[in-house]
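Quick one, C-alpha cells below. Sequence please?
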C-alpha cells in the first residue's frame, strides 16, 4: 500500500514552531533549556537564517515556562520597544488562561507605563501616546517580574543588536542601561538575546563601557552539520514515499549553502517538483528554477531602479562574494576607480529591513543567497551585462553551481 499523502513538511521564511518537522540540534537545545530552567542569561550569535529563532521557539514553546518572544528587527524608537514588549507580554499571558485570571490587579499596577492602558476581562490591549520616559521602560519590565511570581518566564529578544544599530546613540545607551538595571533584579526570569550582527552583539556584551558587559554567556549558532540535515531531508521525503539519491542530497547543500533556512526553501520546492519514487537531480533542477522564477519578479524591479554603478556593484559582489571590497582588485573588477565610489554605489543596498547586502567586517555578502544565484543565472545568459562575468568559472564554488545555473540553457 502506498504511503498516505502528507502536506509539504518543509518550512522556510518563518519560525519553526513545535509540531513542524525540525532537524534536532541536541547540544544547543540542551543549552537553551538549561538557561530557561536556571533563569540564566545567554546570547545566541549566528548569521541570518541560521535558525536561532526556531531553535528557541521549538525548544521552549511547549515547556513548563512561559516564553515571551520579542522580535526587535527594524526597531525604530524606544517607544517602539515598549510597545513590542508590552504587546508580546500581553499576548503570551492571554494564551495562558490559568495565569491570566490572577493578573488584572498586578497588570493595572505594574503596566501603568503607557498614558493609555486598556485592560479587559478578555483580550489585553495596550496603546502608547507621547514620548516614553525611563519609568515607562521600568514599568514594562516590572510587569515581567510580577508575572514571573506566578510562573517562571523566559524572555527572548531577537535581533537585539537593532537597539544600537537603529536608535540614536543617546537613546540606545539609555534603553540598555535601564534594561540591564531591571534584568539583574529578575530572579525568576531567563533572558535569551539573539543577534545576527556579530560585531554589534560583541560590543553590547563584551565592550567594557557597555551596560551589558559580561552579563550573559555566548553560544554560537552555526550551520547544522550536513550529516544531520541530510538525514533529516531523507527522512522527511521518505514520509511521502520519495527517495532522495545521495547525489541529490549533496547538491541541495551545494546550491543552498550553509543556511538551514535556504536548505529548507530548496527542499520545499523540491517536494513540489517531485512525486513518490526516486527524487533525482532533474527534479532538483526544476526546483531551483522554480525559485529563480520567484526571485526574478523582485530582482528585475531592483535592477530597473538601480543606477549603472549600483548594478555593477551588485554583479561584482555576486561574482566575488567573500572578497574584501576595499581592495584594489575588487575595485578594478567592479569597474570603479576608488573605494569611495564602491561604497556610494553599495550604500542603498545595505540599509533597511529589506536590504540586499550586509557587511561582515571588510567583506560584503548577499542576505538572500538565492538573489545572488539569480544574478549569476542572469549573467550566464547575458554576459554583456557585466563583462567580467565571462570568467564565471574562475572559482571552485561557481564551477559547482554551473550545472544548475545553466540547466535551462542545455
Amino acid at each position: 500500500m502506498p504511503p498516505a499523502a502528507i502536506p509539504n513538511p518543509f518550512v522556510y521564511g518563518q519560525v519553526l514552531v513545535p509540531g513542524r518537522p525540525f532537524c534536532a540540534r541536541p547540544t544547543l537545545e540542551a543549552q537553551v533549556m538549561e538557561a530557561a530552567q536556571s533563569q540564566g542569561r545567554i546570547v545566541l550569535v549566528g548569521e541570518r537564517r541560521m535558525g536561532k529563532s526556531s531553535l528557541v521557539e521549538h525548544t521552549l514553546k511547549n515547556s513548563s515556562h512561559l516564553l515571551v518572544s520579542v522580535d526587535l528587527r527594524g526597531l525604530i524608537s524606544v517607544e517602539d520597544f515598549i510597545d513590542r514588549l508590552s504587546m508580546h507580554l500581553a499576548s503570551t499571558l492571554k494564551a495562558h488562561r490559568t495565569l491570566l485570571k490572577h493578573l488584572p490587579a498586578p497588570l493595572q499596577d505594574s503596566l501603568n507605563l503607557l498614558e493609555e492602558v486598556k485592560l479587559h476581562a478578555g483580550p489585553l490591549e495596550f496603546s502608547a501616546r507621547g514620548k516614553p520616559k525611563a519609568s515607562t521602560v521600568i514599568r514594562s519590565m516590572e510587569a515581567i517580574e510580577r508575572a514571573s511570581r506566578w510562573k517562571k518566564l523566559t524572555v527572548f529578544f531577537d535581533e537585539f543588536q537593532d537597539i544600537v544599530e537603529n536608535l540614536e546613540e543617546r537613546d540606545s545607551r539609555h534603553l540598555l542601561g535601564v534594561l540591564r538595571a531591571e534584568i539583574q533584579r529578575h530572579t525568576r526570569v531567563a533572558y535569551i538575546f539573539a543577534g545576527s550582527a556579530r560585531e554589534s552583539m560583541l560590543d553590547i556584551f563584551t565592550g567594557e563601557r557597555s551596560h551589558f558587559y559580561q552579563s550573559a554567556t555566548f553560544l554560537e549558532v552555526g550551520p547544522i552539520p550536513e550529516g544531520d540535515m541530510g538525514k533529516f531531508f531523507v527522512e522527511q521525503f521518505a514520509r511521502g514515499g520519495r527517495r532522495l539519491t545521495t547525489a541529490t542530497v549533496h547538491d541541495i547543500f551545494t546550491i543552498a549553502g550553509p543556511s538551514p533556512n535556504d536548505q529548507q526553501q530548496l527542499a520545499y520546492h523540491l517536494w513540489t517538483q517531485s512525486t513518490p519514487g526516486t527524487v533525482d537531480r532533474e527534479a532538483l533542477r526544476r526546483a531551483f528554477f522554480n525559485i529563480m522564477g520567484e526571485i526574478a519578479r523582485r530582482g528585475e524591479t531592483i535592477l530597473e531602479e538601480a543606477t549603472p554603478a549600483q548594478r555593477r556593484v551588485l554583479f561584482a559582489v555576486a561574482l566575488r562574494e567573500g572578497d574584501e571590497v576595499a581592495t584594489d582588485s575588487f575595485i578594478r573588477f567592479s569597474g570603479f576607480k576608488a573605494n569611495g565610489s564602491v561604497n556610494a554605489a553599495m550604500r542603498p543596498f545595505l540599509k533597511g529591513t529589506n536590504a540586499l547586502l550586509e557587511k561582515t567586517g571588510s567583506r560584503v555578502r548577499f542576505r538572500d543567497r538565492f538573489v545572488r544565484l539569480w544574478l549569476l543565472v542572469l549573467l550566464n545568459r547575458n554576459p554583456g551585462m557585466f563583462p567580467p562575468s565571462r570568467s564565471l568559472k574562475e572559482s571552485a564554488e561557481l564551477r559547482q553551481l554551473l550545472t544548475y545555473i545553466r540547466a535551462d540553457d542545455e
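The longest helix spans residues 281-305. Residues 106-130 have pLDDT under 50 and may be disordered.
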